[in-house]
Amino acid sequence: MEESLSESLERIETSHNSRSDAVMESLNVALVRSVGDPGAVMLETWESWLLAMQAHSAVFAATDSDRETVTCKIRQEERHLATTGPQTYLNADTWLDAFYLAVICREATRLDMLAQIPVSLLRDFGGTLDEYTYAWVETLQSFWLRRDDLRTHLVRAVDLSAPEHARIVDAEEMIKLRYPPIMMLYRYLRNDAAGFKEALADAVRWHKEYWTADEDRAHNILGVVALAPLAIACLAKANGIPVEVETDYLPEALLDFAWRDEFDA
Which InterPro entries match (predicted)? Predict the structure, then answer.
């Protein structure tokens, strides 16, 4: 898998297939690393999460229509990516992963960039996602940019994450995976430490329930880390809200940003 990722990164400057592969493979490599190093205490594990963040952010940075190329740092090398319009891999789900990864890596500059990506671009990827997804993207963008419409988007995201609105994902996924990070952010915004603790515990419990419900899910690498809850927990911890839930689904070194100042991302 790592060899395939390296090959994708070699062609990421001009190949859309390679960009799509790099996004998927980089996250998978980080998750595989986390199986053997659930606390993310090894340097190689942190490097894999950093690389996933770099790859995800780079493909969205390359949507800047005002430039022919953008320069992005990937694996400590400057890559010059040709800019592009809508692509299948530039969808709202990928944007959410990019946002979560940038939060986990405390990458404010990349978060600034991601928060400026037009939702219209994400809608034009050529497929269909539940409307909740776009409401949640707009919520996170408004949150990061400190816009006045945050409450409006948050309420809409809560409403659209109700299971009866699920069309693409099933009701179980909506309840156990999609809704919990929204409630975590709500508690965070209210500076409700007790409520946040409860929301995080619920998110981890439902994540475990979902990904251990049957053998197929139990072997799916996407269940190794609770990516969205981890990201919101990183926000909370960085801003003084205690995070007291201990679980391999929330790698401790990522939560604590233990590798700060070790790399120039």
Answer: Imm49
Helix/strand/coil for 75 = coil
| Nearest residue to 58 via CA among 120, 104, 11 | 11
Each residue's pLDDT tens digit, 138-176: 999 999 999 999 999 999 999 999 999 999 999 999 999
Q: Which residue type occupies 55?
A: A
In angstroms, what CA-CA distances link 100 with 49, 222, 245?
Answer: 11, 14, 19
Q: Is the dihedral of CA 39, 44, 47, 49 positive or negative?
A: negative
Produce one character per residue of 21-45: b if its CB has 16 or more CB atoms within 10 Å, e if not. bbbbbbbbbbbbbbeebbbbeeeeb
Tokens of 232: 């919101």
Note the pTM of the prediction, 2 decimals.
Answer: 0.97
pLDDT digits (tens, 9 = 90+) for 57-116: 999 999 998 999 999 999 989 999 999 999 999 999 999 999 999 999 999 999 999 999
The Cα–Cα gap between 82 and 226 comes to 32
Task: Give the Cβ contact number of residue 89 at 10 Å.
Answer: 19
| pLDDT digit string, tens, across residues 53-67 | 999 999 999 999 899
